[in-house]
């Protein structure tokens, strides 16, 4: 009983802390990469307290609901967007020997299914705002999810086939170093499709601020808007965690797997999160038709090829 | 009643209640959102019956894909905030009668078929391994027949959606064109 409580507390702490760390890293990494200063005064050293100041600012803003909005759906949407990522965090193993809050049999399917639910929050927000730009954003969210869910599930299935299990813990147990080249295509497809599902740049057409203001989140302000932002960063943590566990061997490192497993996981997640930020800074936004073409003409065939490769090698070995 | 049965009954109430709201609400998007609740309760029902894999696939396919597709369709055509007066069809009573009759027939079949027979639930009875073994050993022929059916509908959808495939001209019409 105590073990469960401690695990849940740790997951809650990770959920509260890691997204903020990613957010802070994004501010500083982007500032360095683009040679701009950004806020440097709050808290003296490199403006470390700016994030806290932002949080206080969000919390004291007025809670505004547009007059024509569908009030219930409008208020519910940030929760629907955020809670699924908390649930996925429950099943991601960080270390060997049951260092996971909830060891589910079909863990891969649980993670993918629940992540898909989070997107409904953005669609609800887009519709309920009674704003044509929000509605356009909501539609783009839906279109993006429908095209990128398929390659993501295929890439994850390939790992499940290789490991012979649907359990996330089991996948890492089975993982060997040669899976890196073997599942490389799947890893890239999974990561890219995941980025698109999170609507991170360069896949941020749904929130394209220069043409549709801020897509589904246009009418949101204060704490509700902060919840959407938090959902985005929690999504990055979850995507990097899943990619680590499925494709990069989770807690397995060059030495001290059992003692330092959790540290290897955290390092890999951190490197992937850095990659996410790097991609945002490096690539311009893709157009809607380019987005769809990338999904259907590249990622789906590539993931099918990966599935075939996995199947052939699995039988041959 | 055991705790499991109570939870199962509650989930059933939620699923049926949400399903009724889907067809009675006058707000198109609310109907789609109530469908999410109904599917979610259904997935919960599968979970109680130890069919973990089916439950999560239900969420992945129905909530994550079908409802999103529905919402996309609604938003693409029209997405009015508030009530739509034209959602009620004149056939509502006939539709209600058909629905009640169908439900009654199904319930009767299940009750007649199983009476008070009880299946003990065992953990892992609905796991992916058991399901895979059943589908690809015992039920492989129906499974393959279903795949062919889905393939046929896929091909049909592609043919219907492609505007560059025209009907083959009749012999006479072709001669006219050449002339």
Low-confidence stretches of chain B: none
Radius of gyration of chain B: 23 Å
Number of strands of chain B: 0
How many helix segments of chain A?
Answer: 12
How confident is the prediction overall: mean pLDDT of chain A? 85
Number of domains of chain A: 1
Structural class of chain A: mainly alpha
How many β-strand stretches of chain A? Answer: 0
Largest sheet of chain B: none
The CATH architecture assignment of chain B turns out to be Up-down Bundle
| Helix-strand sequence of chain A | HHHHHHHHHHHH
Keywords (chain B): Cell membrane, Membrane, NAD, Quinone, Transmembrane, Transmembrane helix
InterPro entries (chain B): NADH_UbQ/plastoQ_OxRdtase_su6, Nuo/plastoQ_OxRdtase_6_NuoJ
Subcellular location (chain B): Cell membrane
Family (chain B): Belongs to the complex I subunit 6 family.
Structure summary:
Chain A has one domain (2-316).
How would you characterize this protein structure?
The complex is a heterodimer of chains A (317) and B (179). With 317 residues, chain A is mostly helical. Chain A has one domain. Chain A is built from 12 helices and no strands. In chain A, helix 1 packs parallel to helix 11 and helix 8 runs antiparallel to helix 12. Chain B is mostly helical. Chain B has one domain: Up-down Bundle (Four Helix Bundle (Hemerythrin (Met), subunit A)), CATH 1.20.120. Chain B is built from 7 helices and no strands. In chain B, helix 1 packs antiparallel against helix 2 and helix 2 runs antiparallel to helix 3. At the A-B interface, helix 4 and helix 5 of A face helix 2 and helix 3 of B.
């Amino acid at each position: 009983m105590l073990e469960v409580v401690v695990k849940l507390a740790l997951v809650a702490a990770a959920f509260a802390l890691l997204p903020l760390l990613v957010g802070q890293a994004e501010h500083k990494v982007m500032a360095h990469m683009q040679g701009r200063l950004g806020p440097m005064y709050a808290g003296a050293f490199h403006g470390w307290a700016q994030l806290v100041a932002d949080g206080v600012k969000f919390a004291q803003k007025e809670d505004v609901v547009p007059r024509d909005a569908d009030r219930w759906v409008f208020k519910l949407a940030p929760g629907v967007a955020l809670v699924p990522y908390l649930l996925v965090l429950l099943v991601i193993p960080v270390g060997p020997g049951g260092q996971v809050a909830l060891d589910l049999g079909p863990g891969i399917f649980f993670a993918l299914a629940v992540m898909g639910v989070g997107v409904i929050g953005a669609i609800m927000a887009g519709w309920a705002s009674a704003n044509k730009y929000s509605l356009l954003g909501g539609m783009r969210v839906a279109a993006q999810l429908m095209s990128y869910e398929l390659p993501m599930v295929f890439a994850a299935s390939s790992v499940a086939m290789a490991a012979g299990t649907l359990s996330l813990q089991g996948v890492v147990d089975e993982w060997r170093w040669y899976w890196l080249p073997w599942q490389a295509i799947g890893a890239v497809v999974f990561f890219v499709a995941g980025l698109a599902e999170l609507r991170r740049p360069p896949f941020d057409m749904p929130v394209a601020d220069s043409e549709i203001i801020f897509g589904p989140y246009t009418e949101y302000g204060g704490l509700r808007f902060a919840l959407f932002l938090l959902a985005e960063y929690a999504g990055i943590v979850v995507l990097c965690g899943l990619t680590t566990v499925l494709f990069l061997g989770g807690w397995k490192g060059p030495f001290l797997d059992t003692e330092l497993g959790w540290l290897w996981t955290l390092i890999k997640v951190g490197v992937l999160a850095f990659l996410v930020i790097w991609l945002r800074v490096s690539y311009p936004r893709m157009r809607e038709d380019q987005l769809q073409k990338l999904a259907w003409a590249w990622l789906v065939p590539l993931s099918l090829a990966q599935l075939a490769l996995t199947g052939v090698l699995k039988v041959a070995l | 009643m055991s705790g499991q049965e109570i939870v199962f009954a509650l989930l059933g109430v939620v699923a049926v209640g949400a399903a009724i709201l889907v067809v009675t609400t006058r707000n198109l998007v609310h109907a789609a959102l109530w469908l999410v609740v109904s599917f979610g309760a259904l997935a919960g029902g599968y979970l109680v019956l130890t069919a973990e894999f089916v439950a999560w696939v239900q969420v992945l396919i129905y909530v994550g894909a079908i409802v999103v597709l529905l919402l996309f369709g609604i938003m693409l055509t029209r997405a009015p905030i508030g009530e739509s007066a034209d959602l009620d069809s004149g056939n509502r009573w006939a539709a209600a009668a058909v629905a009640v009759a169908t439900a009654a027939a199904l319930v009767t079949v299940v009750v007649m078929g199983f009476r008070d027979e009880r299946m003990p639930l065992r953990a892992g009875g609905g796991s992916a391994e058991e399901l895979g073994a059943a589908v690809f050993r015992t039920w492989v022929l129906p499974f393959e027949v279903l795949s062919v059916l889905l393939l046929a509908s896929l091909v049909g959808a592609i043919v219907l959606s492609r505007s560059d495939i025209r009907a083959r001209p009749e012999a006479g019409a072709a001669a006219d064109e050449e002339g």
